[in-house]
């Protein structure tokens, strides 16, 4: 087997972001193939073989690649619309527009979103895509292809909606899938695109959209599908006070209790936003190791509130950062 090609980065300030927050004022990073082989102070070790590139990082900060834990790429094409709306009003205003997207639009939006993130240092990204209009083409394939072309490690959170206006939900009737159709399409996407290997560049998660756009059956059956296929689960949770009210009125309980009743708490689950969490909610997330994608720019843009991130971290809840849809933070970064 041929020796791995090496890239050596030297003379930069190194922030390792390891468990001890180790930093080097001037250090090196050695890459061997697709592995970080060594990180340390000063120059790289002498005698390294097969070095194909040396980078002088003087005056620069070297960090691990950033991980974006929540995004909606397709919203790139509706930036600047409904700018004075809270979340529910914003969704109602934009659902009819989003329900007319097609494969070329989604591919272009994914390319723009991915390029913006790559410029900002994101090397691992996800896209929560949940709008699949009839006859719109292979939207999942378009998104995954754009990520592959960009060279980003990527998870497609294959979303779905089946609770429309006629069922008490927010999306218009023509913008949703059927329960069976959503589950079948999600399973097909996993089987076609998910790579479970350690070096995977493309993975798929099961991701019904939210309590106000998804039936209880789709949440429950979606969780069972994900665990049968061995993939992760993602959705929106506890984003606004309106969502809290919606869940109490429709289900007789708050979002966290509702998610737990449908199998949606666990170490294989991560949820976007989680702004309106009480002490009991945070304890449940910590107990089950349910993750949170914190989206501060979007939370501010849509007046959702300020998430209790310090309390979550103190309780042991895994928390990552998310861009959220470009249309709800207006920059995509």
Automatic annotation (TrEMBL):
<protein>
    <submittedName>
        <fullName>Hydroxydechloroatrazine ethylaminohydrolase</fullName>
    </submittedName>
</protein>
<dbReference type="InterPro" id="IPR006680">
    <property type="entry name" value="Amidohydro-rel"/>
</dbReference>
<dbReference type="GO" id="GO:0016810">
    <property type="term" value="F:hydrolase activity, acting on carbon-nitrogen (but not peptide) bonds"/>
</dbReference>
<dbReference type="Pfam" id="PF01979">
    <property type="entry name" value="Amidohydro_1"/>
</dbReference>
<dbReference type="InterPro" id="IPR032466">
    <property type="entry name" value="Metal_Hydrolase"/>
</dbReference>
<dbReference type="InterPro" id="IPR050287">
    <property type="entry name" value="MTA/SAH_deaminase"/>
</dbReference>
<keyword id="KW-0378">Hydrolase</keyword>
<feature type="domain" description="Amidohydrolase-related">
    <location>
        <begin position="61"/>
        <end position="332"/>
    </location>
</feature>
<dbReference type="InterPro" id="IPR011059">
    <property type="entry name" value="Metal-dep_hydrolase_composite"/>
</dbReference>
């Amino acid at each position: 087997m041929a020796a791995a090609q090496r890239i050596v980065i030297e003379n930069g300030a190194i922030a390792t972001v390891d468990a001890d927050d180790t930093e080097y004022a001037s250090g090196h990073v050695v890459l061997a193939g697709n592995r970080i082989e060594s990180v340390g102070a000063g120059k790289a070790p002498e005698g390294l073989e097969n070095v194909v590139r040396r980078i002088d990082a003087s005056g620069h900060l070297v960090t691990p690649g950033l991980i974006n834990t929540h995004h909606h790429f397709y919203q790139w094409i509706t930036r600047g619309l409904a700018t004075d709306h809270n979340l529910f009003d914003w969704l109602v205003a934009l659902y009819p527009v989003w329900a007319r997207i097609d494969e070329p639009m989604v591919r272009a939006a994914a390319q723009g979103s991915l390029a913006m993130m790559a410029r900002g240092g994101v090397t691992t990204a996800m896209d929560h895509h949940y709008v699949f209009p009839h006859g719109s083409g292979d939207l999942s394939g378009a998104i995954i292809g754009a990520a592959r072309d960009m060279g980003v490690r990527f998870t497609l959170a294959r979303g779905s909606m089946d609770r429309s206006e006629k069922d008490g939900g927010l999306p218009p009737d023509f913008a949703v899938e059927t329960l069976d159709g959503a589950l079948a399409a999600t399973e097909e996407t996993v089987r076609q695109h998910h790579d479970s290997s350690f070096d995977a560049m493309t993975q798929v998660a099961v991701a019904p959209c939210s309590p106000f756009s998804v039936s209880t059956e789709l949440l429950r059956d979606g969780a069972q599908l994900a665990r049968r296929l061995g993939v992760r689960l993602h959705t929106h949770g506890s984003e606004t006070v309106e969502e809290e009210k919606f869940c109490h009125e429709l289900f007789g309980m708050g979002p966290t209790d509702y998610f737990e009743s449908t199998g949606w708490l666990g170490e294989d689950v991560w949820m976007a936003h989680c702004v309106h969490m009480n002490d009991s909610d945070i304890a449940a997330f910590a107990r089950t190791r349910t993750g949170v994608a914190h989206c501060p720019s979007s939370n501010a843009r849509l007046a959702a509130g300020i998430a209790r991130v310090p309390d979550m971290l103190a309780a042991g809840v895994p928390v990552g950062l998310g861009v959220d849809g470009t249309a709800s933070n207006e920059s995509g970064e």
